[in-house]
Amino acid sequence: MNSEPLTYDLCNQGFHIIDGWLTAEQCQTLRSAAEELYSQGLFRSAKIGRHVESHENNTIRTDAILWLEQNETNPAIQIFLEKIQQILQLLNQSLFLGLNEFETHFANYQPGTYYKKHIDQFATQKTRKISFVYYLNKDWQDEYGGELKLYDLDERLIQNIMPLENRLICFNSTLPHEVAITHQPRYSITGWMKTRALSPI
Are strands 128-135 and 115-118 parallel, antiparallel or unpaired? Predict the structure, then answer.
């Protein structure tokens, strides 16, 4: 992967989009895995906040998620995790961000669901540096909604991103963003590349 467009865009506009990031077969396999896991009832209502302080708030977000672990046995998920790790290493080499881990989950938005404007970086712990979203939605149409609205630090809209199949977006975790109401089932994999949390003195 050529890191120059990615690093240039992250530094100059705060985000970078890659279409056709995986093979079509890999993307379809990930979509099938997400649908199967969702049908098994393994997704849970998403929460806001950090860890023990997290809680559900349906006025802010109404999606459902399933966390992915580093030891996933599904080959397609393993490939996805390896490719994200490669991006993490490229960003460290190019931008010296000090990234040492990432966390990620499947996300499902059913018709009528959304995620209001927010930022991914917590106020009390600024370990999240680069956010990423990978879309699994075949033949997505504009009228289906569910777009990612990305804002600058002054909260002016800078990009309206449709959740098209096999599209990856990386953006600075300080940027405000939201997921518009979707009108069709919408699948993605969302995550954050992180630095190590400083231990309290």
Answer: unpaired
Q: Please name the amino acid found at residue 171.
A: F
Contacts of 73 (CB under 8 A, 6+ apart): none
Torsion 34-36-37-40 (CA) sign:
positive
Instruction: Report d(CA 124, CA 163) in Å as an integer.
Output: 30
Taking only the tens of pLDDT, the chain with its 201 residues reads 777 899 999 999 999 999 999 999 999 999 999 999 999 999 999 988 765 456 778 899 999 999 999 889 999 999 999 999 999 999 999 999 999 999 999 999 999 999 999 999 987 789 999 999 999 999 999 999 999 999 999 999 999 999 999 999 999 999 999 999 999 999 999 999 999 876 554
Q: Among 107, 85, 95, which residue's Cα sits nearest to residue 172?
A: 95
Burial class (CB in 10 A: 0-12, 13-18, 19+), 9: middle
CA distances from 108 to 64, 93, 116, 136 (A): 5, 33, 15, 10
